[in-house]
């Protein structure tokens, strides 16, 4: 189950990063970046 | 490169910098601060000695063993079942660094939920840790942990936690609460495996008395109290009387038969040990507290709790003196001394005699740091 959840978190992280790269409004890019922080920390098994 | 790609790169760099800063802080929390081996410790072993399934996991934890000069009964002290309750952990540390056994055997697990010390609770504003100044002027640091196992080690939580032995249902995050997982099982979660290891240790070592040290918020009804399994009631009653003679008021509560998974219920049912749990008053855990910092955890002073006391909302006296860590640890240690005394009088052929534990008044006067040993 833990592996499945980590895979989901990694998938959402990739989509968030993609959104950050393609989004044209910098405010929405910043929002995506803030969403990415906890996802990245969880995927790296830090928090 | 388009304009929005430039902003994406800049924001990504800032995001990665935030990850590095936060990540370093979180990883720092996993460093285990040393506990100095005191004169009475005869052996330090891992909990996996009794359940090898814990070996190499974040739940494996140190067990400090004190073999007395003479044979006798045995006693287990669990500190750090909830690592956000400093007095339980610190009482175990003071035992390890000061206690000696004249007769009987003492087992101390300072970090019963070892994983819970590797993080703290989000959105609680809890301090990272707390410091003590020692007699030689040096300082010792201990971290303020979480009530539950680190989700890095056990994830995800179910929506509903079902206690395996009884079918009792609780909120999903209780699945990481060590004191809801007893007697534990080998095919369960990491937390349940830790519970199983402790239960197996009690069974294998035929431990006569098990004491689980806790703290609770001042608005919690079971506070400054002993919760005892029905078989432990005679001994716990003696402890209450003994403490009253020392002007330490403490309540005695029977372990509810329908509240499952807790030490005072399951260890008493699953083993022959006399199982008890003790609570002191810690405002840094409470819902009514103000600023939550190291001072609150150590001094236990809070204006909002004084107001709550005036409104009659608390189950423990609360004034401007607060409830210091010396008072809370002093209560636990005094009770442990009384438990050893009560066990020896109840079972005279299996005496438990502990020496070297700082007395309640000594702790208040000299401070807790005076009884911590300097790091080498």
Most extensive chain interface and residues per partner:
A-B, 22 and 19 residues
Shape of chain A: elongated
The total count of strands of chain B amounts to 13
Report the structural category of chain B. Answer: alpha/beta
Unreliable spans of chain B: none
Shape of chain B: globular
- Overall tally of structural domains of chain B: 2
Distance between the termini of chain A: 17 Å
Task: Give a brief description.
The complex is a heterodimer of chains A (47) and B (376). With 47 residues, chain A is mostly helical.
Write the layout of secondary structure elements.
The complex is a heterodimer of chains A (47) and B (376).
Chain A: H1 2-22, H2 26-43
Chain B: H1 3-28, E1 43-46, E2 62-67, E3 70-78, H2 86-98, E4 100-109, E5 129-133, E6 139-143, E7 160-162, E8 169-171, H3 190-205, E9 209-216, E10 225-228, H4 233-245, E11 251-254, H5 263-270, E12 274-281, H6 294-299, H7 303-310, H8 325-346, E13 353-355, H9 360-366
Parallel strand pairs in B: 3-4, 3-9, 9-12, 10-11
Antiparallel strand pairs in B: 1-2, 2-4, 4-13, 5-6, 7-8, 10-12
Helix pairs in contact in B: 2-8, 4-8, 8-9
Summarize the structure in words:
The complex is a heterodimer of chains A (47) and B (376). With 47 residues, chain A is an all-alpha fold. Chain A has helices at 2-22, 26-43. Chain A has one domain (2-43). Chain A is built from two helices and no strands. Chain A is elongated, with a radius of gyration of 11 Å. Helices cover 32% and strands 19% of the residues of chain B. In chain B, the strands form three sheets. In chain B, strands 1, 2, 3, 4, 9, 10, 11, 12 and 13 form a nine-stranded mixed β-sheet that branches. Chain B has a two-stranded antiparallel ribbon with strand order 5-6.
């Amino acid at each position: 189950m833990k592996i499945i959840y980590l895979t989901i978190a990694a998938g959402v992280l990739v989509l968030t990063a993609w959104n950050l790269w393609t989004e044209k409004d910098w405010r929405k890019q910043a929002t995506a970046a803030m969403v990415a922080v906890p996802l990245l920390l969880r995927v790296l098994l830090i928090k | 490169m388009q304009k929005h790609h430039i902003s994406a790169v800049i924001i990504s760099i800032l995001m990665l910098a935030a990850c590095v800063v936060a990540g370093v802080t979180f990883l720092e929390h996993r460093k285990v601060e040393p506990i100095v081996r005191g004169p009475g410790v005869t052996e330090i072993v891992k909990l996996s000695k009794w359940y090898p399934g814990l070996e190499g996991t974040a739940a494996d934890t140190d067990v400090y063993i004190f073999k007395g000069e003479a044979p006798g009964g045995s006693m287990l002290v669990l500190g750090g079942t909830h690592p956000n309750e400093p007095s339980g952990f610190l009482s175990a540390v003071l035992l390890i660094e000061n206690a000696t056994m004249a007769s009987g055997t003492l087992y101390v697990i300072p970090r019963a939920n070892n994983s819970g010390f590797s993080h703290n609770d989000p959105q609680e504003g809890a301090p990272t840790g707390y410091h003590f100044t020692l007699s030689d002027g040096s300082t010792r640091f201990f971290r303020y942990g979480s009530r539950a196992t680190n989700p890095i080690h056990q994830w995800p939580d179910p929506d509903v936690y079902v206690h395996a032995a009884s079918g009792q249902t609780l909120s999903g995050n209780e699945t990481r609460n060590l004191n809801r997982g007893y007697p534990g099982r080998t095919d369960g979660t990491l937390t349940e495996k830790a519970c199983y290891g402790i239960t197996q240790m009690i069974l294998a070592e035929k431990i006569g008395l098990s004491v689980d040290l806790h703290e609770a918020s001042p608005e919690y009804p079971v506070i400054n109290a002993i919760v005892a399994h029905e078989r432990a009631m005679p001994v716990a009653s003696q402890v209450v009387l003994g403490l009253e003679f020392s002007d330490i008021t403490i309540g005695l509560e029977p372990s509810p038969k329908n509240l499952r998974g807790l030490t005072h219920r399951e260890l008493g049912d699953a083993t022959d040990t006399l199982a008890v749990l003790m609570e002191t008053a810690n405002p840094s855990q409470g819902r009514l507290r103000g600023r939550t910092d190291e001072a609150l955890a150590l001094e236990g002073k809070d204006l909002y709790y004084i107001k709550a006391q005036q409104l009659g909302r608390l189950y423990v006296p609360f004034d401007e003196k607060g409830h210091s860590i010396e008072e809370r640890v002093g209560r636990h240690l005094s009770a442990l001394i009384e438990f050893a005394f009560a066990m020896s009088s109840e079972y005279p052929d299996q005496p438990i005699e502990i020496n070297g534990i700082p007395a309640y008044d000594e702790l208040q006067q000299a401070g807790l740091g005076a009884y911590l040993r300097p790091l080498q």
